Amino acid sequence: MESDPEGPPVPPVEEEKPDLSHVWVVAAEIEVVPKVAKVADYRGSFKATEGLRIDALEVYCKGCRRPYDEVTGQDCAAKIDNRHLIGGDQSTRAKRKVPVPPRNARVVPGGRIQRRGIEAYVGGVSRPPR
Known about the structure:
This protein is of the alpha+beta class. 18% of the residues lie in helices and 10% in strands. It has a two-stranded antiparallel ribbon. The longest helix has 10 residues, at 34-43.
């Protein structure tokens, strides 16, 4: 009895396709008491009570930021190519135009601003104004 030197046939390996589905999120409006509002403002989150009704303001994709009714059934554009989120292809985008000053305007040079060190702190550059 001779065995097959190549062995049993190997089934073809299927390529795993990337998940291009949307991740849906809901922008909501929830009425809370002042105590919960204080906690939510401090922590950035809060616990809702059971049975609380939440009004949905908008349903959109977390990745491409497009509304549910516009892109449902389509692939998420952000997972394919997210250039639309940064204003298009940066290499072909037009540069910002420098505004032309009026004819009677005069450019007056200002003083040097110290942005580092104790002078910057004392001068208010690195701390918010009061």
